[in-house]
Amino acid sequence: MRRKIIAGNWKMNQSLAQSESLAREIVTALEAISQRESVDVVVCPTFIALAQVAKAVAGSKVRVGAQDGHWENPGAFTGKVSFDMIRDAGAEYVILGHSEQRSYFQETDETVNRKVKKALAENLIPIVCIGETLEQREADQTEQVLSEQVKGSLKGLAPEQAIKLVLAYEPVWAIGTGKTATTQQAQDAHRFVRERLVELFGDSAAGAIRIQYGGSMKPENAAELLSQPDVDGGLIGGASLKASSFIDIIRAA
Ligand code: PEP
Q: Which of 23, 35, 58, 204 ranks highest by number of CB atoms within 10 Å?
């Protein structure tokens, strides 16, 4: 039985004060609903707000994640943030390989793979994003793209490492567009990804790895998406910036 995981990707949004108050609102709202310990909840603010948000949620069920990190040890890498610094700020998760990183900042499966290995070595839980573009879906390349991304991003990991991470299937055409994959499209992609995980890590590890869906998930469509057998949670962009909609998605999970 995989625990559901709902993570909010705040992207490059929210001032320091807004980040802290959104985090506090989520903590307060979560306290009011019975969670029966069945859902992991993560918020991923900007680097600059990480420590402050981690302090604001300390002692609650909310965990904190970063949105990227660099694979090198601390040193002369201007503009970068190392995974041990992310851990030091109070984060436990880190989003890696998000499609915005892949399309705007030259992220490749190889750089994702380096980051995944270093993040795991620093005891962070990577949330590894994969997903096809609209062009790739229309050209019937979805499975090939997902297969390459899974293999490339998770290359060289042992099953005992792989079970620690979370995958996020995010069809690029559904991110921030209001277009959501149908439940069947999501389930088919998640099932396909899990089959690749079986090939890479064996049945038992593949059965334990959580695969989130991301792409315009909102309160209105969350319950149906999350009811699919291979959909183990959600990575939420837009709808995570409002405490009430984020909480409604957690409720659905
Ligand atoms: C995301 O960027 O990870 C995402 C899923 O965004 P949105 O929910 O806004 O589509």
A: 23
Say if residues 124 and 83 touch (Cβ distance below 8 Å).
yes
Across 134-157, average pLDDT: 97
216, 218, 245, best to mutate for ligand 1 pocket (most atoms within 8 Å of CB):
216
C-alpha dist (Å) from residue 129 to 80, 96, 101, 162: 20, 6, 10, 14
Nearest ligand 1 atom to the CA of 9 is: 3
What is the residue whose two structure tokens read 């995570």? Answer: 240
Q: Tell me whether strands 62-66 and 233-236 are parallel, antiparallel or unpaired.
A: unpaired
- Would the pTM count as exceeding 0.85? yes
pLDDT band at residue 80 using 50, 70 and 90 as cut-offs: very high
Query: CA torsion angle for 231, 117, 153, 168 (degrees, to 10)?
Result: 20
- The structure tokens listed for 183 are 């439940």
**What separation in Å is there between the alpha carbon of 73 and the centre of ligand 1?**
30
Residue with tokens 């306290």: 31
Atom 8 of ligand 1, nearest CA residue = 237
For 14-60, write each residue's pLDDT tens digit: 999 999 999 999 999 998 886 566 899 999 999 999 999 999 999 99
Q: Atom 3 of ligand 1 has which residue's CA nearest to it? A: 237
Distance separating alpha carbons of residues 8 and 182, to the nearest angstrom: 21
CA 250/CA 43 separation, integer angstroms:
12
**Cα 187 to chain centroid, rounded:** 17
Q: 170 CB less than 6 Å from ligand 1?
A: yes
Nearest residue (by CA) to ligand 1, atom 2, is 237
